[in-house]
Design goal:
Number of helices: 6
Radius of gyration: 20 Å
Shape: elongated
Distance between the termini: 18 Å
Number of strands: 4
Strand order of the largest sheet: 2-3-1-4
Strand content: 15-25%
Largest sheet: 4 strands, antiparallel
Helix content: 25-40%
Amino acid sequence: MKLDPIDLRILEAVQREGRITKLRLAETVGLSPTPCWLRLRKLEQAGLIAGYHARLAPRRVAPFATVLVEVTLANHRQSDFDRFERAVSARDEVLACWSVGGGVDYILKVVARDIDAYQRLIDGLLADEIGIDRYFTYIVTRTVKEDGPLPMTLFAGP
């Protein structure tokens, strides 16, 4: 689907404010409400908008530890990658898992009640024998920036 500047403005607006009203969205992108709403529906139907979510203030919910983990697998067959990915996808504590190039196979973003709970998670993954050869843990001490909106300016024409 080819996106024009108005589509990009719509995507930018709903990323920043998922509960924006139809009227406010139309004003923001410079369209009348009906054409704006039709474009939004088209973007949703095309799968460009995966859903609408509330962004929580996690530290106000409860204290927790955020941990980044580098993981290297012992073997590198497709079945090894599949087994590992299924296992981490099933763990709610694993918020993100990226397969990466370079010296490690994966980087995980994990949340846990505390460091002890994180270690129990890792011990469980090791006991499950999902192919982990080595892992390195990085405790996040302060969040500077996290999960910002996708910058639509990357996709605008020259």
